[in-house]
Amino acid sequence: MDLVVALVLGLSCLLLLSVWRQSSGRGKLPPGPTPLPIIGNILQMDFKDISKSLTKFSKVYGPVFTLYLGLEPSVVLHGYDAVKEALVDLGEEFAGRGSFPLSEKVNRNLGILFSNGKRWKELRRFSLMTLRNFGMGKRSIEDRVQEEAHCLVEELRKTNGSPCDPTFILGCAPCNVICSIIFQKRFDYKDQNFLNLMEKFNENLRLLSSPWIQVYNIFPALMDYLPGSQNTIIKNFDYIRSYVLEKIKEHQESLDVNNPRDFIDCFLIKMKEGKDNQQTEFTIENLLNTVTDVFGAGTETTSTTMRYGLLLLLKHTEITAKVQEEIDHVIGRDRSPCMQDRSRMPYTEAVLHEIQRYIDLIPTSLPHAVTCDVKFRNYFIPKGTRIITSLTSVLHDNKEFPNPEVFDPGHFMDESGNFKKSDYFMPFSSGKRICLGEGLARMELFLFLTTILQNFKLKPVIDPKDIDTTPIANSFGRVPPLYQLCFIPV
User: Fold this and answer.
1) Are 305 and 205 in contact (CB under 8 A)?
2) What is the model's pTM?
3) 376-382 long-range CB contacts below 8 Å, 24 or more apart?
4) Using one digit for the tens of pLDDT, what is the confidence trace for 395-431?
5) Which residues sit opposite 306 in a β-bridge?
6) CA–CA separation, 204 and 100 (whole Å)
7) Residues contributing to the annotated binding site
8) SUPFAM superfamilies in the record, alphabetically (predicted)?
9) Distance (Å, rounded) from C-alpha 31 to C-alpha 78?
10) What gap in Å lies between CA 320 and CA 322, rounded to an integer?
11) pLDDT digits over 210-230, tens only?
């Protein structure tokens, strides 16, 4: 009986706290749907397609509105003007990282992706500089991507034109580029450790995009006690982290401070330089999490974009033919594609942009947070409030991109057939928190896909008009359906 009374009192207090917090903040924040106590607006949202829910709310409440995901308010930015005004014009104020409980449980706000303040600024600055300068005087990053593109083609030749699922082959290529930068090592595509890493990354993106994980991130204290896919994600991250830690230990034993070999060496040297500084962010824990962040963000996103891109090219055979015609004209068959070719290949560039725009890989990006109290469009947003940016509303804006639900490279072509840039092209987000690896990802997409199309004809196993490009997951990330194709040598 005492337990029942305690539970009733506890729930009553929680209910009163919820009502008080929601009513006290609602007058200052942007308008939004009326939240229910404790659970907020979650019953009004479709967690299988969050972007669709945000678009529906924006039609009622405008481009800036408030949602309660549980007890906590989130301010949603919908449309190019609102997103640009916040992330670019007020970049410093909107540069915080919002709460993402599952990732916080894994990395404890260390590393780059989910850190804030001084830690985030120092680690991001170091990582950008290291990636930018890496290989100067040695092999450039472009050399590494070209080498991997060659290995990818040789692996695809081994399929002998038979139907194959490209998931893991396409995952291996960008992962190997990251491995060469971080570990100074690439793997054979049949290496079991390598395949295990690929499987963990692939499974995590799929599970992070499930409705269950969206609910977990709203009620982590409750969901921690329940079985579910969050435990699989945590186990997968633990596997990846243990692998990275093993590599860090190997680097520590063989480190030559006068001859850094890779990203890990550069970080270890930085650690030695600041060993007497009690406030340093260059620690083993931050190294482990930074490498894991770069590893994960630089692998699965690029490979998923490539996989989705090939599916779209299988369906739209006339577009593929035009890209291959441009490859034949500009590059030919006697040499490998290089980044200098890109400026002379406007149609291919338009197709690559359209792939990223159309698939809208991470529809709401990672959550932001305001770093101080902010007055935004006559609303008051308190420091620490989570900010959700709808990248879908920018990438699928029907004024900038007529018929945005149609895959059309013409969205990035002018009337003279030249490539046309667009400020609305934000697949990597924008502002201070823009994706660290944007330059590398764009290089990989160009070199990998042009090298594949230079060497193979893509043959679908079903009629192109019957190919379904609808994603099988549509929440945190859009995951393309599984499919098979034949790579026919040309």
Assistant:
1) no
2) 0.89
3) 376/64, 376/75, 376/85, 376/86, 376/90, 377/30, 377/64, 377/82, 377/85, 379/28, 379/29, 379/30, 379/64, 379/75, 380/28, 380/29, 381/29, 381/75, 382/25, 382/28
4) 999 999 999 999 999 999 999 999 999 999 999 999 9
5) none
6) 15
7) 435
8) Cytochrome P450 (SSF48264)
9) 13
10) 5
11) 888 878 878 877 776 778 888
